[in-house]
Amino acid sequence: MKAEFTTPEIEILKQFNAITGRRFRATKSNLKGISARLKDGYTEQEIIEVIQVKTLEWKNNPTMSAHLNPVTIFRPSNFDKYINQVLTIKENPQQYAKHFKQINRIKSSAADDLASLTDLYGD
User: Fold this and answer.
1) 45 to 2, 12, 48, 51: CA distances (angstroms)
2) Domain range holding 43?
3) Is residue 47 part of a domain?
4) 80: left (phi over 0), alpha (psi -120 to 50) or beta
5) Using CA atoms, how far apart are residues 59 and 32, in angstroms rounded to an integer?
6) Is residue 1 in some structural domain?
């Protein structure tokens, strides 16, 4: 029987899969960006928040759904923008709810549930 080992990168990838509903494997290409973002000083919580926001924004968007993958999310040129998006949401969740509706052309969204957003990101 092969012993399974885990690292923070593997745990974050498991969370990525749970949040997005995807099944990415713990390959070098999928873990490389996660490892680099951790080395850049981002916390596991910040990384999970980015995954949550991009999933809300992209999962039901036919054009962007294909980009909901570890390579794109954790690319250095993208991640800094995404972390700043999380900060903007924390500052004004109502503004984001309107933005989310517009980009996805829907009448309501998970971002409308301010109680859940507050639970995720605090006041």
Assistant:
1) 30, 9, 5, 10
2) 8-121
3) yes
4) alpha
5) 23
6) no
Residue with tokens 């995720």: 120
What digits encode the pLDDT tens for the residues 54-73? 998 898 888 999 999 999 99
Contact 70, 13 (CB under 8 A): yes
- Helices 76-91, 114-121: axis angle to 10 degrees equals 120
Collapsed DSSP state (helix, strand, coil) of residue 113: coil
Residue 3 maps to a domain: no
**pTM score above 0.90:** no
What does the pLDDT look like over 79-99, one tens digit per residue?
A: 999 999 989 888 887 877 776
* Domain count along the chain: 1
Residue 117's nearest CA partner among 78, 83, 88 is 88
Position 77 in a domain: yes
Q: Which residues contact 8 (CB under 8 A, 6 or more apart)?
A: 34, 38, 44
Q: What is the separation, in whole angstroms, between the first and last Cα of the chain?
A: 47
